[in-house]
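From the pipeline queue, job 12 of 40. The input is one protein chain; the requested action is below.

Action: predict structure.
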Amino acid sequence: MKEVDAIKDHDTIKLISYLLERQCGEQMRDVWEIGLNLALRISDLLAIRFSDIEGDTLRIQECKTGKQARIVLNAKTRERIAAIRAAHPLHVYLFQSYRSQGAANRPPRPLTRRAVTKAFMLVGEELKLDLGTHSMRKTRGYWLYQQCKDLGRVMRMLRHQSEAVTLRYIGISQQQVDQDFLQLEI
């Protein structure tokens, strides 16, 4: 699997949203925008059921680690979820598959990781970016780090155990850390 990057430019983040909607539909745009705000692995993001959301809080058990995650939803995320729920009141999953053949004749299922990967790769190719399903999580971590410069806080959000993993994950090199030390004089 090819390594993907955090998106380090706000205009590019917005352009990805626009292109996903234009080329793949509103649902893929919602996956991108909600995924950016939740910083979950794609398996956890696609597995979200409306029953996992209580008011402004999402509670899930992470597939990979088995850890419980409690995430307070920001206003943008709550608005997108409310719009999805209003458009699809009978759906079980936040990102439920409903357009494929036979979807009406089988139990509810979420979108597949494969479908999301395909959509993201399509947009990534157009923008000449290594865009993948993990780009959402990495982007959220990168922007939180840029805002607070608190690696421990980013580690907690991503539920990582190692600073080295988090630094590599969000695309912060030792050279950038060194530059931070040079620029900040007390």
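Job complete. Residues 10-24 form the longest helix (15 residues).
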